[in-house]
């Protein structure tokens, strides 16, 4: 404590030359009290608490059908904060095993080796994202983490095996292929398949070769992986643009799914307007002219071919998910015939003979839906049976949190499909069907959601008992991720990231009243928009240099821009002029502060910008460990509290900032990475912090915020004589009233220099005995700062300073004002950050000249004007500022005093 107080002593010394000193400019220290609450600026912040697991479901991305002990088995993984690999007996619809995959959140790929071993491509997203290969033994029923196939690759998107039991996988971020040899337990890195392409999204093995499907620009690479074929690497995609009817190879979308059926390689290309299946003849090494794409024939929905992890065939026919149906494809004619309505992908497929399922004699085709339900297809009778999911649900990672117009918290998840609404006043929660929302904003009675993929805008009518997101419009212009959504008067503004393999985000302005919207792409060339604020007809925006996945940024530095809404044009764009900032990758977190300025964050720096001339008014590098490469798409979330503080996940760390001086405190220092954050009111109207953190993305966490019950340091007041003669020197006292461990004060006074000459300001003997005092004059403003030293403080009522004034103007009522901005601070103020302001001005009235009884306005006569002035004070408590109006000395200003003045006025 003593070392901290040295700051105050130093400030008084500095103040002798810097007269604008205020206690609030002192760097704030933060401490924890006995109950571990952090206190800052009069607010107490509790420990992070997990208050709900809002989105529990069994959501899967893929799976495979295999066998254990001769019985058909479904292998899949429930994506969650802690992913669960699960084993289901298909015939009995029984969950046999649910095994946690420590550190894994997502799994897209499974593959079964000839010996029955199941390989799983895990993706670790907490902390450093990376792909991890796992295996499951059908004999021991144990799950094993094998390891990271290629250091630096962030995910495993595809898996296959060869007839020797070797495992092959395709990765993101360098679009590589690897092999795992289970005999030598070693990995082989075959490198990137196509330079500049980040994904190997699909993969298959046939006769000594791997076929790797790339993205974001689709191609198929044939890679030799045996002794007799090694060294061979060649693209076989030359005819694909012609088959897809696109102009060039650069327009070929993802080679998204792949499977070998007999002597054919099936490749589904997906992206843009394509959900198209092509066929490669593996014997003759040519693409067939047959194409299965969007089709409405025979009841088809025209959506094209959906994804598949396995394909099942028999009798020279194979079954695919196409145009809203399970579709039969004849391998002789390649004619596609819709059989049974089925509007989703095949997450694994196989043939199973059911013993007791009526109407499903013989072999039935089975697959699993995204929620874990098993679909059973009777091909001959063209019907489907649904077995409800037996998968063990798990917390799904929260992918957004924002407050709706009803005060509730709206949340979505990744993987998508289910969302939640949490009432912070009651603690109750309901779930809703919802896709992955990158951005959300409340407008009117509706909650608007910006959904990925596809850049769709949906809304929820929050007045309905059953919340249902309904479509509003699709942004278009190849926009994919609406990461930032803000309101602007009667409209909504949206900033977006483009689709895979593209640069150039967009600014979209939507009018809910008319349903009209306008899209302005490439407002800043080849950059995406992740920050928006609106003021007086102008949008202030900020960017990230990054576009969609699968393309390298071309611009060096994120920028600010200004958009004229009425004239639909960009006014200017510029880089931030902040010392030490060089080519940041992202600027975000923009908002209009209570001061009317634009606030935002870049790297670990908070900045304040003048919206008129775009000058940086102030900035503070809060987190110096953050580099210029920090940030990609997800913006900082900025919220202004009712307490005047700024709440922000700056650099993905919960940060509370005092905007007056940029003092700050970081909360939850054990956080791995705060993904989403907001503030919302509880039943008492108090705003608490709600967030999702990478340490446990499945949990909604809260930091309770409350007022700190500090004792008041005490008040300042002026006392002195009611009258003075011309050229007389009087003493006015600056007093401390009911002080409680008072350590320092700053008094601001208004003393008219045409009425008084300030001779001196001195500390009282009692104050100077343990402290020091400085003062300065600027025109009519007088500032006095005093501080105690060491462990000294004041209690009770005392004179702190004495002001010597000489009267220089005759026959005037001089009003000495102690301004409301005057403040005091307790001995613990350096820890709490709390100062106590006077709040309102107080006055000491001194008459200069021969005081005529009843001449309250000092004009030398007692008349009607004095009566009217006195009348305003009838019943007012007598103090030093009005004591001269108590003419009969009974300590009351009443009708008797009014009568005395009236009689004098009649003379």
UniProtKB/TrEMBL annotation:
Domain Dockerin: residue ranges: 849-907
Classification via SUPFAM superfamilies: Calcium-dependent phosphotriesterase, Carbohydrate-binding domain, Quinoprotein alcohol dehydrogenase-like, Type I dockerin domain
Limits of the EF-hand domain: 855-877
PROSITE patterns recorded: DOCKERIN, EF_HAND_1, EF_HAND_2
Keyword vocabulary terms for this entry: Signal
GO BP terms in the entry: polysaccharide catabolic process
GO molecular function: calcium ion binding; carbohydrate binding; hydrolase activity, hydrolyzing O-glycosyl compounds
Pfam family, one: Dockerin_1
Coiled-coil zones: none
Signal peptide per UniProt: 1-22
Protein name in the entry: Dockerin domain-containing protein
Source taxonomy: Bacteria, Bacillati, Bacillota, Bacilli, Bacillales
């Amino acid at each position: 404590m003593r070392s901290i107080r040295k700051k105050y002593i130093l400030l008084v010394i500095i103040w002798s030359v810097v007269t604008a000193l205020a206690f609030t400019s002192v760097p704030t220290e933060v401490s924890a009290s006995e109950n571990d609450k952090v206190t800052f600026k009069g607010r107490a912040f509790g420990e992070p608490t997990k208050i709900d697991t809002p989105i529990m479901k069994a959501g899967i991305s893929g799976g495979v059908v295999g066998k254990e002990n001769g019985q058909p088995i479904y292998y899949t993984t429930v994506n969650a904060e802690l992913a669960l690999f699960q084993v289901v007996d298909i015939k009995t619809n029984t969950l046999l095993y649910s095994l946690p995959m420590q550190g894994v959140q997502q799994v897209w790929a499974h593959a079964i080796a000839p010996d029955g071993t199941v390989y799983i491509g895990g993706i670790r997203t907490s902390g450093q994202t990376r792909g991890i290969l796992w295996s499951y033994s059908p004999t021991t029923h144990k799950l094993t983490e094998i390891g990271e196939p290629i250091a630096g690759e962030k995910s495993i998107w595809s898996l296959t095996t060869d007839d020797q039991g070797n495992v092959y996988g395709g990765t993101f971020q360098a679009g590589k292929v690897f092999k795992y040899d289970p005999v030598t337990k070693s990995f082989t890195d075959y490198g990137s398949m196509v330079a500049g392409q980040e994904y190997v999204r699909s993969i298959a093995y046939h006769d000594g070769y791997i076929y790797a499907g790339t993205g974001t620009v689709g191609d198929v690479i044939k890679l030799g992986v045996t002794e007799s074929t090694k060294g061979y690497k060649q693209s076989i995609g030359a005819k694909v643009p012609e088959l897809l009817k696109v102009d060039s190879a650069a327009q070929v979308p993802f080679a998204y799914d792949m499977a070998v059926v007999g002597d054919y390689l099936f490749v589904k290309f997906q992206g843009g307007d394509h959900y198209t299946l092509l066929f490669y003849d593996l014997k003759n090494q040519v693409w067939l002219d047959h194409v299965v794409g969007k089709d409405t024939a025979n009841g088809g929905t025209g959506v094209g071919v959906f994804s598949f992890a396995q394909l099942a065939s028999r009798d020279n026919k194979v079954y695919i998910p196409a145009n809203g149906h399970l579709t039969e494809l004849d391998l002789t004619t390649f004619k596609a015939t819709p059989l049974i309505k089925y509007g989703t992908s095949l997450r694994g497929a196989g043939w199973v003979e059911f013993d007791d399922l009526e109407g499903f004699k013989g072999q039935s085709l089975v697959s699993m839906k995204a929620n874990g339900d098993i679909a059973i297809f009777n091909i001959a009778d063209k019907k489907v049976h649904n077995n409800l999911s037996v998968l063990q649900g798990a917390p799904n990672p929260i992918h957004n949190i924002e407050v709706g117009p009803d005060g509730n918290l709206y949340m979505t998840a990744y993987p998508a499909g289910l969302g939640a609404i949490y009432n912070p006043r009651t603690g109750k929660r309901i779930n809703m069907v919802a896709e992955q929302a990158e951005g959300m904003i409340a407008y009117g009675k509706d909650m608007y959601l910006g959904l990925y993929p596809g850049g769709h805008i949906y809304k929820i009518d929050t007045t309905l008992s059953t919340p249902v997101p309904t479509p509003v419009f699709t942004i278009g212009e190849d926009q994919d991720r609406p990461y930032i959504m803000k309101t602007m008067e009667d409209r909504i503004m949206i900033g977006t990231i483009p689709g895979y393999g593209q640069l150039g985000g967009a600014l979209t302005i939507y009018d809910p009243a008319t349903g009209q919207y306008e899209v302005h792409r490439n407002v800043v060339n080849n950059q995406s928009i992740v920050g928006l604020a609106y003021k007086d007809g102008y949008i202030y925006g900020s960017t990230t240099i990054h576009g969609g996945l699968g393309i390298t940024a071309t611009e060096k530095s994120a920028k600010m821009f200004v958009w004229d809404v009425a004239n639909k044009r960009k006014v200017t764009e510029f880089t931030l002029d902040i010392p030490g900032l060089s080519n940041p990758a992202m600027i975000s977190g923009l908002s209009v502060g209570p001061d009317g300025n634009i606030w935002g964050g870049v790297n670990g720096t908070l900045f304040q910008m003048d919206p008129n001339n775009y000058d940086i008014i102030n900035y503070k590098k809060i987190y110096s460990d953050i580099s210029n490469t920090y940030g990609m798409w997800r913006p900082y979330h900025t919220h202004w509290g009712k307490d005047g503080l700024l709440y922000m996940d700056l650099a993905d760390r919960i940060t509370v900032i005092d905007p007056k001086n940029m003092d700050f405190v970081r909360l939850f220092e054990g956080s791995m990475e705060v993904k989403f954050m907001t503030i919302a009111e509880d039943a008492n109207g108090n705003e608490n912090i709600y967030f999702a953190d990478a340490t446990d993305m499945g949990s909604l966490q809260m930091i309770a915020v409350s007022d700190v019950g500090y004792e008041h340091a005490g008040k300042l007041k002026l006392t002195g004589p009611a009258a003075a003669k011309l050229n007389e020197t009087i003493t006015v006292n600056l007093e401390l009233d009911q002080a409680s461990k008072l350590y320092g004060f700053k008094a601001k006074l208004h003393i008219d220099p045409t009425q008084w000459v300030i001779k001196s300001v001195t500390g009282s003997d009692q104050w100077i005995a343990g402290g020091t005092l400085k003062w300065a004059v600027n025109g009519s403003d007088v500032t006095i700062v005093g501080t105690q030293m060491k462990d000294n403080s004041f209690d009770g009522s005392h004179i702190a300073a004495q002001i010597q004034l000489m009267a220089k103007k005759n026959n005037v009522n001089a009003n000495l004002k102690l301004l409301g901005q005057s403040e005091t601070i307790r001995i613990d103020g350096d820890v709490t950050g709390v100062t106590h302001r006077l709040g309102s001005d107080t006055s000491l009235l001194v008459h200069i000249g021969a005081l005529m009884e009843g001449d309250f306005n000092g004009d030398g006569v007692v008349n009607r004007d004095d009566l009217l002035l006195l009348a305003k004070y009838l019943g007012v408590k007598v103090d030093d500022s009005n004591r001269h109006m108590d003419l009969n000395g009974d300590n009351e200003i009443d009708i008797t005093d009014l009568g005395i003045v009236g009689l004098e006025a009649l003379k």
